[in-house]
Amino acid sequence: MAEKYVQTLERSLDILEVLAHTEEPLGVTEIGNRISLHKSTVHRILQTLCYRGYVEKEKNSERYKLGIKIVELGIRFFNDLEIRIVAGPILEDLAKSLDEVVHLVLHDDGEVVYIDKRESSHVVSMRSKVGRRAPMHCTAVGKALLSTMPEEEVMRILETKGMPGYTPNTLIEPAKLLENLDEIRNTQISVEFEENEIGIICLGTPVYDFSGRAIGAISVSGPAARIREKGVEHIGQELKRSGEIISAKLGYSYFKR
């Protein structure tokens, strides 16, 4: 028997997801076009979402964005994540030790989602922010997680999401990525040399739970020149050590590997 869905609720969630995946507020027509819904229906649902605080209408315009209620729910979700609670102090120590930006991500539907970030003392412009999604094939955290998966699962993600080139350094051929993942499995350290953003080098390592499953990854990112000056090998080992500490606190035993 097919599952029954509440159509209005499903459409409301479609609208929230559209607003969540755009950088700018959207008008009723724009939202409707993206989810193939008549603007009168979109407008009616938006009024309810605005009333409940999940969506906000911009002053002096007919454009909408996510409301404060969504932020409240998101913060509650993040605060309840065990990995975020456990990893927090270690991320803080790592960021201070290396004085570079540190991230914690989870895997979701073939992408990585940034769930925590620690800044450096340097003024660096980076695309990452908590809640943002990123591809797996060209990010250090994404490749760290892909390295823990069977090849069939990796290929399924690549076929579904594709391998777009973000910079001239992005790996866009599955065979080359699979070769890179073999290296990462051996070292537990992934390195992304300006594959996602020109001028930025990022290193990643997986984080495991008590069952031995990779549930997330952490990374260190910074300007290419500074990362090379500090030493990619040195940063990689510090990062790996931090990942192992987080994994151990989550119940993972490296003696069972």
Could you explain the architecture of this structure?
With 257 residues, the protein is α+β, with helices and mostly antiparallel strands. 47% of the residues lie in helices and 20% in strands. The chain has a 6-stranded antiparallel sheet with strand order 6-5-4-9-8-7, sandwiched between helices. Strands 1-3-2 form a 3-stranded antiparallel sheet. It is globular. The model has no long low-confidence stretch (mean pLDDT 90).
Query: What proportion strand?
Result: 15-25%
- Determine the structural class based on helices, strands and strand pairing: alpha+beta
Major sheet, described briefly? 6 strands, antiparallel
Average pLDDT, rounded to a whole number, is 90
Share of helix, binned:
40-55%
Task: Please compute the radius of gyration using only Cα atoms.
Answer: 20 Å
Topology:
Blueprint: H1 7-20, E1 26-27, H2 28-35, H3 39-51, E2 55-57, E3 63-66, H4 68-80, H5 82-98, E4 101-108, E5 111-118, E6 133-135, H6 140-146, H7 151-161, H8 174-187, E7 190-193, E8 200-208, E9 214-223, H9 224-230, H10 232-249
Antiparallel strand pairs: 1-3, 2-3, 4-5, 4-9, 5-6, 7-8, 8-9
Helix pairs in contact: 1-2, 1-3, 2-3, 5-10
Summarize the structure.
With 257 residues, the chain is an alpha+beta fold.
Distinctive features:
about 45% helix, about 260 residues, three-stranded antiparallel sheet, single chain
